[in-house]
Amino acid sequence: MAISVWLLGGPVASVRVRAPAMRTRTKYSKKMVIKNRLGFHVRPVQRFAELAGIFRSSIEVEIDGQRVSGKSMLGLVSLGGRCGSVMRITAMGEDARQAMGVLSYLVDQNFFVEDDLDKEKYPDRHITRLVTFASCFDSNVWVVCRGKKINVRDNEGLLSLGLRPTSRVEFLAEGLDSMQARQVLDTLASYQFYVEDEMGARARQKAD
What we know:
Blueprint: E1 2-7, E2 10-16, E3 26-33, H1 42-52, E4 58-63, E5 66-69, H2 73-78, E6 86-93, H3 96-108, H4 125-134, E7 140-145, E8 148-151, H5 155-161, E9 170-174, H6 178-190, H7 196-207
Antiparallel strand pairs: 1-2, 3-6, 4-5, 4-6, 7-8, 7-9
Helix pairs in contact: 1-3, 4-6
């Protein structure tokens, strides 16, 4: 933001001031069980590394005593995580809490791998993913779709949008972690909210 410096007679200069940054370095660690039937394979690894890479904090993943960066696809693949393996996620830095919220939800939801999901039972799972990811951040977040701007904490408003996994959306955020919030939600929307039938359809359209 900009502020003006005044002396007698009027303003003499305009000074740009940077918005306050998150400076508190915190550490979070959590053990989780890989429930995905095929284990920590390509799709889970790609999604985990891409989301982890958004955050400024350092992120590590440990399986069976082997520890690698959570932002490295090659490192994560080398862990060889199987269904039933215990993984420890450790995040340390100024946005560690937000990172842990996003990544632990991803793991808990089987990395959004839908091979065994009863899709008809969860028709609005894309909205659930949007709301849950947004709730990991302190910033206020809005989604803009079809000319309407709705706070993501307004469930009735979101439903009124008729939001689909393929909808064109824009995210707005205000707060200290707004950059990370927008990047996470932009990533979510760019993959059709990880609704895999829609992801497959989009990939086929591009191939044609």
